[in-house]
Amino acid sequence: MSQTTTNDSEDGTLSKDQEDSPSIDEGSCGMGGGSALKKGPWTSTEDAILVDYVKKHGEGNWNAVQKHSGLSRCGKSCRLRWANHLRPNLKKGAFTSEEEKLIIELHAKMGNKWARMATHLPGRTDNEIKNYWNTRIKRRQRAGLPLYPPEVSSQTFNEDLQTQTIGEFSSVAAPHCSLLQGTDYDIPDGMMDHLKSNQGVLSYAAGMPDISVGGMLTHGLGSSQHCSFARPFIHRPKRIRESETLFPGFGGNTGLPLFDQFQGNACGKISRAELSFSYDPDPGTRGL
DNA sequence: AAGGTCGGCAACCGCAGCTAA
DNA sequence: TTTAGCTGCGGTTGCCGACCT
């Protein structure tokens, strides 16, 4: 939209911006290469080179793109550009209401698993979904609205309970969740206090009127819904970062387990038929 | 009209998982 | 078994146009 993604000259020749590019980085992207790598917006010339390269060699082996095509872009940058903008069958434009419903539904189920969510939205990229969601969070926070419509919260919760009851992924979930389903969850007092004090601003909790943070903990964290909420407490560097986002100031070193695996299992079961809730993606803010 | 703020988007960064040597 | 390279993912930042005051 606003961003110029192809900012070279009309005739497609190498424009000035390719020479004095927004920024030249000496071997960033993790891997050095010695040669200066360009950063910033892609030009249509670069796009063409990348498309041509992928046509000839296929996707993957992104680091070879720089070597073989002469593009001054690191492999990561090429992969991202291809995945988000050049890949065929990409759907452009605003999300349809169906897609919005699906995103909300999926996020309620799996949390910030953008890539996984993208697999349920053909033609959409994880980046698009992530951007959409982040914007949505901002809007809803500003409007003081819950993140999820109540229908989504309770529906998702019930589905997951059902799912678990019939043992759809119990073989995977059990080892993790059993740790949480005992009577003594062993939640440190300080942590509990922190959770309570943050409840008002917890985006997840805010969207779950029936499942307050306290309720989550006393209710049993066995469902995938709960487990995904439990993720912020996971003892793992990456998750700690996440936890700091959701629970500022809380370090997350509680030794609670990781649920990503069975989340993935649970996530694959969503069908369009489930989207029966009445919903407004952003009540009161759509017309912003 | 000018300045400030917001919304939307593209792209970068750092980390983790996977795999081949 | 270890290690280095590659890839993918999620978080974050910066840019720019639109809108508001």
TrEMBL record:
Domain Myb-like residues, every copy: 34-86, 87-137
Record's subcellular location: Nucleus
Location of region: Disordered: 1-40
Domain HTH myb-type residues, every copy: 34-86, 87-141
InterPro entries found in the cross-reference section: Homeodomain-like_sf (IPR009057), Myb_dom (IPR017930), SANT/Myb (IPR001005)
Keywords tagged on the record: Activator, DNA-binding, Nucleus, Repeat, Transcription, Transcription regulation
Coiled coil location: none
UniProt-recorded Gene Ontology molecular function terms: DNA binding; DNA-binding transcription factor activity
Recorded superkingdom: Eukaryota
GO cellular component, one term: pollen tube
Chief localisation class: nucleus
GO terms classed as biological process: pollen sperm cell differentiation; regulation of pollen tube growth
A Pfam short name: Myb_DNA-binding
Keyword hit for Cell division: no
The name this protein goes by in its record: Transcription factor GAMYB
Organism from which the protein derives: Stephania japonica
Taxonomy of the source species: Eukaryota, Viridiplantae, Streptophyta, Embryophyta, Tracheophyta
